[in-house]
Design a protein that fits this description.
The chain is an alpha/beta fold and 233 residues long. It has a single domain (15-230), classed as Glycerol-3-phosphate (1)-acyltransferase. The chain contains 7 helices and 8 strands; from the N terminus they run H-E-E-H-E-H-E-H-E-H-E-E-H-E-H. Strands 4-3-5-2-6-7-1-8 form an 8-stranded mixed β-sheet, sandwiched between helices. Strand 3 (83-87), helix 3 and strand 4 form a beta-alpha-beta unit. It is globular and about 55 Å long. The model is unreliable at 1-9 (pLDDT under 50).
Length: 233
Amino acid sequence: MSGGAARRGAVRVGPVDRAFRFGIRRLVRGRLRGVWARGGPSGLWEPADDAPQVGGFVWAANHHGWWDGFVAAVPMWERARPLQVLVEPNSLARFSVLRRLGGVPANRVRDAVRTLRAGAAVVVFPEGELRPAGPLGPVRPGADWLVRASGRPAWAVATRVVLRGHQQPEAYLDFEPVADRSVGDVLRGRLDALDAELAASDPRSPLPGFREVVRGARSWDERLAAVRGREPA
């Protein structure tokens, strides 16, 4: 096991689970242009072997698209960061494969508290359901309860997977610490700000201040331009 995987909070991953994760990585890298992130706990986006341990934290995100859990998990897997995703129990029963990808029933909150205290991040969707893209919907109190019960910090993560000026959609993760405010208030404000930024941005360029944490597929015109750039003048 690598040094990163052996860190406190890490979960042993068997060969079948590794195969599923490989497939999800291929899916994200092949169907999205990339995943970009801004902010987050110090050292989160550095390789786990080269950065201090991040520690457990609540990752509270809006849930407005099919990709939301995957664009949270893949950047963390690639840095050997331990992570679990709370999934609505009925969805987990219908799609049991999600357990192999780190999904656990959302009603097992005390297990989530132990996971946080052990040093892993726990992804929570405070709306409690998949909702249409738009403003944040009504928020349930579970994320705030996890913070109080575990003593671990929370980060609101505005999440958007959007088709802009390229062939493939782009995923954006915009982090803001919750501190002494409610998760819902912080997440609502961060999501509104991200939407406004996307609406005013140059669609051909990544949003300023974000770093690419997973590189995906480039558009055919970008690939063509790269080939032409290698051709002799």
